[in-house]
Amino acid sequence: MKIDVLTLFPNMYDNFLTESIIKRAITSGKVEVNIHNIRDYTVYNNNQVDDYPYGGGSGMVLMCDPIFRAIDSLKEEDTKVIMMTPSGQVFKEKTAIDLSKEKHLIILCGHYEGFDERIKSITDLSLSIGDYVLTGGELPSMVVMDSIIRLIDGVITAGSLDSESFNDNLLDYPNYTKPYEYRGMKVPDVLLSGHHENIEKYRMEERFRITKENRPDLLGGKNE
Ligand code: ADE
Fold this sequence. Notes:
Number of domains: 2
Number of helices: 7
Distance between the termini: 25 Å
Shape: elongated
CATH architecture of the largest domain: 3-Layer(aba) Sandwich
Bound molecules: adenine
Radius of gyration: 21 Å
Strand content: 15-25%
CATH superfamily of the largest domain: SPOUT methyltransferase, trefoil knot domain
């Protein structure tokens, strides 16, 4: 998979791309990530990329031309163009799974008051990472990339993906490691029993319990 990111703040990605699983996914060739500065695509004086909104209001709006030029030059036959915006559909694991099968993504990050609405005409999907407004689309784009890249075949051990939060609309079961007792808190005995069936049953019950407690909306299938 190849991911091209369009941003006004390329340095924000330095650590994200050079640590841990994402770094390994890149160095092993499972994913190629290119960060592009939107200013490199402007033909306006003083590298201008944004301007005041028509109709008034505060803040600046990203202009069409630099973005259209960038996408024209980066787009390939099978490209999905994603816009990061708090007005987009809320990003879910299901979308991460679908996007992890794509060949090429272009992710568009806005700042300030967002994008000229006409930019939407050349995008396939608008994504929000939640019901809160951040200073820009960079952190959201990293969230989306992280969740997609870990799902690409071979990036993490396949077994690790089998039972995790949001599979089957349930949150994950709790885990424990050594020591057996810590500050008076013991590991549930069933986990030491070696009885695989009972362990499976306990974990499934815990998934239901935790989901009911923290995300009852998931149990109603309202997370699609
Ligand atoms: N840009 C600013 N806030 C955002 C959010 N919640 N999701 C995606 N992009 C954003």
